[in-house]
Amino acid sequence: MVDEFSAKPTTAEILRWLREDDPARLARLWAAADDVRRQNVGDEVHLRGLVEISNICQRRCAYCGISALRTDLARYRMTPPEILDCAAAADAYGYGTVVLQAGEDPELTGPAIAQLVRDIKSRHRLAVTLSLGERGDDDLRLWLQAGADRYLLRFETSNAELFARIHPSAGRHGRSRIEMLHRLRELGYEVGSGVMCGIPGQSYDDLAADIALFATLDLDMIGVGPYIPHPHTPLGEQVEILRLPAGQQAPNDELTTYKAVALARLVCPQANIPSTTALATLNLAEGRELGLQRGANVVMPNITPMAYRRLYEIYPAKACIAETAQQCIQCMQARIESIGRRVGLGPGGRTGRTKTKPAEDVS
Ligand code: 5AD
Ligand code: FES
Fold first, then answer.
1. What pTM value is reported for the model?
2. pLDDT per residue over 279-293, tens digit each?
3. CATH T-level fold of 11-347
4. Rounded distance between C-alpha atoms, residue 98 and residue 49, angstroms
5. Any bridge partners for residue 143, and if so which?
6. What residue spans define the domains of the chain?
7. Which residues contact 150 (CB under 8 A, 6 or more apart)?
8. Mutation test of ligand 2: which of 286, 298, 328 has the most ligand atoms closer than 8 Å to its C-beta?
9. Separation between Cα atoms, residue 26 and residue 116, nearest integer Å
């Protein structure tokens, strides 16, 4: 590996890379991230089947297309049998993990989700990841006891002032997202977080601090994608844009996102890092592949039933042209193999703490 990458980058070095635009130097960053990825998590690309179980949300995040502010959007909540069918499909496709994601839907109660997790774990050898927003300790404990393995909660930005601006009703549980991430770790979850790149009002310094925070939190999973304006949201309509002085705003472009993925890999060598759908949305032809070649080792195929998928529009024109889950899988697999990588088998957790049932226990 090149000398300049022999130690984890400091915040000052992260900042320099985020501002770097020389293609030859950036090629060294991509190569270093790819090396660190190969040495630490290998060539396997793990697949996580994403099920968007409800687009009902009581929060008012200024950037998000399914926030409670969207009164024009039809709302859905999948039934437990529908969700179990998706988990069965994930298993049949050979995915090691199912991710249940939703808005902050009060009807997705602690006991209801716990029952769902128990049902999935008793039927399948799947790791279960939950991504259900900010929740209290009682729910988090219940879900862990039911067998949940991982929790995803992006902190979105480490700039507390910017966070408060774009999350009007934040802190319902009296704690910040970062405090909740610490709590998830204490409880025993594998912990995932991440940010959007280029939120209006997010400076280069902010983004560098975000990436340094990934290391401090010692994240097991890191999701970074570009901020994509949604026209029916306050931030997308530019109603409440925080304008920074020229040259300070972090761009929400493809290149900045690759840099953030590569730097995330350098600061958290063993993390599972997806090449995100938001990134693929900016470059349908090869965004997914370039993410995987610049630090990422995971993809999250969307297995939400087609009828619901168009209603889970957190940002416009999410990348996936498939009309069936089967088409999507074939596309993902071809993309992975086209860059000389292979699809990973099994749950693909970071720490080996994944509590999947042994085969003989599966009823
Ligand atoms: N553009 C890009 N990403 C978005 N998310 C929400 N809204 C947008 C948007 N407009 C991301 C957030 C959230 C994740 C589920 O989706 O980072 O945590
Ligand atoms: Fe869904 Fe390619 S990833 S169509």
1. 0.93
2. 999 999 999 999 999
3. TIM Barrel (3.20.20)
4. 5
5. none
6. 11-347
7. 97, 127, 128, 129, 130, 189, 190, 191, 192, 220, 221, 349
8. 328
9. 45
